[in-house]
Fold:
Amino acid sequence: MSSPQGFNRKEVLHRIGTFFIIVGVGLLAFFLLSEAARQVAFEYFCWSVLLLVLGFMFRGQLKRSATPSGRFSLVKKLMPKAKKQAQEKK
Structure:
């Protein structure tokens, strides 16, 4: 059985990692709230750390290529000219 068209395993793992990070942050918030209420639920902290580590591991597997924004295109065009002029002066 083949995978559906447009299916990318790493993209799915990236999204699952994002989900784990969000749930991990939520559990960390519950842990902090339980500590403020002086009824510490240490399980929330353990699960949050576990999910955060898994989430960052899953998200780290996909390296997206960043498209240049073009914000400093003028500066980039001027830089090679400045280097050539500096070499000509020597």
Q: What stands out?
A: Residues 1-63 form one domain. The chain has a mean pLDDT of 83. Helices lie at 9-36, 42-60, 73-89.
